[in-house]
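Data deposition worksheet. Section B asks for the primary sequence of the deposited chain exactly as it was used as input, without tags or linkers unless they were present during the calculation. Section C holds the resulting structure in token form. Section D is free text for depositor observations; keep each observation to a single sentence. Incomplete worksheets are returned to the depositor.
Section A, Depositor: J.P.
Section B:
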Amino acid sequence: MKERAQEVHVRHLQREVRLPGLGDADAIHSAAQVLVEAAWLYPPEGGGFQARARQAYRVNPLLWSAVP
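Section C:
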């Protein structure tokens, strides 16, 4: 929240942030799905022609207007 990120990257959370209980990609995707359902995040977009799609959730910009 304090960084006002535009996207949440699964790999970044997994390798650098390391939140308790969110150690693997499946757990991170499950938690992100709850935030998608609450309209805080948007689901990842298709990977296009990439062999491995980027796993990033866009942050709903309305969230930042609600946070001082």
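Section D:
The chain has a mean pLDDT of 83.
Residues 7-63 form one domain.
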